[in-house]
Amino acid sequence: xxxxxxxxxxxxxxxxxxxxxxxxxxxxxxxxxxxxxxxxxxxxxxxxxxxxxxxxxxxxxxxxxxxxxxxxxxxxxxxxxxxxxxxxxxxxxxxxxxxxxxxxxxxxxxxxxxxxxxxxxxxxxxxxxxxxxxxxxxxxxxxxxxxxxxxxxxxxxxxxxxxxxxxxxxxxxxxxxxxxxxxxxxxxxxxxxxxxxxxxxxxxxxxxxxxxxxxxxxxxxxxxxxxxxxxxxxxxxxxxxxxxxxxxxxxxxxxxxxxxxxxxxxxxxxxxxxxxxxxxxxxxxxxxxxxxxxxxxxxxxxxxxxxxxxxxxxxxxxxxxxxxxxxxxxxxxxxxxxxxxxxxxxxxxxxxxxxxx
Amino acid sequence: xxxxxxxxxxxxxxxxxxxxxxxxxxxxxxxxxxxxxxxxxxxxxxxxxxxxxxxxxxxxxxxxxxxxxxxxxxxxxxxxxxxxxxxxxxxxxxxxxxxxxxxxxxxxxxxxxxxxxxxxxxxxxxxxxxxxxxxxxxxxxxxxxxxxxxxxxxxxxxxxxxxxxxxxxxxxxxxxxxxxxxxxxxxxxxxxxxxxxxxxxxxxxxxxxxxxxxxxxxxxxxxxxxxxxxxxxxxxxxxxxxxxxxxxxxxxxxxxxxxxxxxxxxxxxxxxxxxxxxxxxxxxxxxxxxxxxxxxxxxxxxxxxxxxxxxxxxxxxxxxxxxxxxxxxxxxxxxxxxxxxxxxxxxxxxxxxxxxx
DNA sequence: CTGAAAGCGCTTACAG
DNA sequence: CTGAAAGCGCTTACAG
Lengths: 357, 357
Prior knowledge:
homodimer, Rossmann fold, 3 domains, 6-stranded parallel beta sheet, 6-stranded mixed beta sheet, elongated
């Protein structure tokens, strides 16, 4: 085994920058410059280095590059419920945008245990590991933000507005207002709302804002709010279904329309209606918010938010901040538009052209 | 600004192992050993080092650790459609299992562009960046596996069986068999199947195996297969709904039960049935496979696969392989069980106790 | 049990 | 335009 065998095409072997430098007859510094496209390298030298690097199957060790440069080209994406559609779609959109720019995503799952895990995150998980962070719908305190600042990792908040910080979000209040006004414009006056935040969720803005949007829409038309029809939920489809079962039980006192804080909850209400033999939209109009990937299949009228665009924007902001610290913080709070998508879960009140039970 | 100010609790400042060593009056080697829990460090020394490290807010730079040790403690998770429930749930499960063991997940999104992207993956994205890879439902060729081997990154295949390699999966054939046998046992004889793989998907095992399971179940009972009721689909809920609209259009020639290759497709069939005024399960039984997170809400009878357990197993296998190369490859092919979950989308054939239209 | 030193594989001023 | 050398912050034999 001591014979020196030449194996140039060694199964993508671990060739280093030194190997390339030797083979090209230049210094490692030159290889580094040539391959990274820096100037001050003669075209001929660059071409040769590139060719030899390709032949040797050279790929710079990201770990060494990171240590030397102080940048990892990795961004941490922090998520509370990675398996839920909204978050999964957002992570996917962010990943796509990041990849195009040569970055990768390290996934941080808060596993519902928001506070504890966030603290652990800060200390040992982010330090020198990511260039920046995008947090999705996570209520951050000022103290935590300062900690992150101390670690020198810029953070973009997506979905959760941080006053004075770089944020990308939709106007939840307006979105809920649009959804509500839609059913009001169809003549509905007996309308319930599912999606009031439960205890402990009072830090989360989305439920608060959407509820506010609902109330405001009613107020705008001078319609009184049935407080007992403002239903607190954990925002799962199951819970919404259970709530709706009760809500719709009494034929003599039930709403003609239900506004849901999310499409998933709307799915639950839809099933509860079917169970009660009510047809949608003849007997009950249902409107959601989000435009969940199954909303079209279930013909759900909803207010669409553009997850893709939000991910894109968050990435753009973060990279601006990375390129020029302080930049993204200047023009903060990018609010992206939402849009009413009318499908067939809503109809004019009392419009029983579909045979009701 | 040239005054030397003592700031021991400097906002989680970048203190290095050298700082700790100096403060503790020992060498960096000792700090390293003490903090990593290696032996050959006196209890007193270790205690002091630990205390001082804590005071200095020291966290080892993962990038430096990786370069020195050759291990990143990061595993790449490769996924074709990260926003779809199955994949998102799997990534989440894997992440949880990994985190418990001190690893993190770097997300690789194939973005449908399977072949191209996989090649790029191999070269520059994985090299020296991850200790191992878990690929979810991705058909890998022998050539690609060899490339990965050349990079020295072990790979566990999840959902896609690699002959002779470490694989974690369910028995798709058996799962579909269970689903099919369930409706057969309810007396159904006119049963359709939605979820035959489309062109280009012939490499993906799941559609093939589930279809085979469907056929086998019918064969076991000597029931002939209606070939025109074996519907190719792209496996989205929309597509399944569209297919079912046609399938269910003719009252004189339509199935009494539909077996779906996935729950998402079952949702689509469910909606098509409603559109046709059919009630489920009185007029049509529907059974899915997966136990999608919305399956319970839609009362869908299905064959459950345990995503959590599969993620766990994949992680366990990978870490075994990391600890002892060659180990995981020995006892390959871990097939996890599936389980029939009967809800109310299936009923005895012709059992019209629910008022049919 | 502990330390000095080499090494991991790059990048980055600094010279020339 | 190019090279020699220091440095990034750890880990790992090797001595003692």
